[in-house]
């Protein structure tokens, strides 16, 4: 009986997805404890609840509830312990909720959101994260935290470009690099070279290594040699 119900659900879902599959070569698969859907002309909608999973090509989305809706199922909305990954594009994510536009390829993560750039080994976190997969730009808002190698960043707002590894921080930004700390009105960081640029109301502290301090002190005390 269970197999019959599952086969029937897959059959119905295939019917609902047929307009999408005919319009674009996109592979969409799903699984859940329960499914409910409707196939009104031009406005299809499908709701998956309970251990829901939706895969769009290499993108996998997990959540307690996932909805696909709009013309040709353009939009995906997930809620309840949302997690996911895209191994092909190199990122993972988690959030309280997610909204994704398949046409613009823009994803919005809300509520203790985290996006990890696994290709560049950059970890980001904020209350709201918007990721544009077409231009590879990630916008972070409120309680922003970012970590890359020895660099740790905090701010209210940030823009991270995955293609160029450039990071722009505003809203009381602070950057720690090892034992050094920098603050300014605006901070730019090249995460590849670890170069830091400060603009406006600059402050900071730099910790000199003991070896460097000893060498500097010895050099200062050394008397010039007589030719």
TrEMBL record:
Signal is among the record's keywords: yes
Signal sequence annotation: 1-23
Alphabetical list of InterPro entries matching this protein: OstA-like_N (IPR005653)
Annotated stretches, region: Disordered: 200-227
Source organism (scientific name): Treponema vincentii ATCC 35580
Protein name, UniProt field: OstA-like protein
Entry superkingdom: Bacteria
Record-annotated Organic solvent tolerance-like N-terminal domain positions: 55-152
One family name in Pfam for this protein: OstA_2
UniProt keywords, alphabetically: Signal
Keyword Signal recorded: yes
């Amino acid at each position: 009986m269970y197999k019959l119900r599952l086969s029937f659900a897959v059959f119905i879902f295939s019917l609902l997805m047929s307009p999408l599959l005919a319009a674009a070569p996109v592979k969409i698969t799903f699984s859940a404890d329960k499914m409910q859907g409707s196939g009104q002309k031009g406005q299809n909608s499908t709701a998956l609840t309970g251990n829901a999973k939706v895969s769009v090509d290499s993108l996998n989305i997990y959540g307690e509830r996932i909805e696909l809706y709009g013309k040709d199922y353009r939009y995906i909305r997930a809620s309840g312990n949302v997690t996911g990954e895209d191994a092909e594009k190199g990122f993972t994510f988690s959030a309280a909720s997610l909204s994704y536009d398949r046409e613009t390829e823009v994803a919005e993560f809300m509520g203790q959101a985290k996006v990890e750039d696994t290709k560049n080994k950059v970890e980001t976190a904020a209350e709201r994260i918007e990721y544009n997969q077409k231009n590879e730009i990630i916008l972070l808002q409120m309680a922003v935290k970012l970590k890359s190698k020895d660099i740790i960043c905090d701010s209210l707002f940030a823009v991270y470009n995955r293609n160029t590894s450039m990071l722009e921080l505003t809203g009381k930004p602070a950057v720690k690099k090892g034992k050094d700390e920098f603050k300014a009105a605006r901070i730019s960081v090249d995460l590849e070279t670890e170069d830091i640029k400060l603009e406006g109301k600059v402050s900071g502290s730099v910790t000199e290594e003991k070896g460097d301090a000893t060498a500097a002190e010895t050099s200062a005390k050394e008397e010039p040699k007589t030719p």
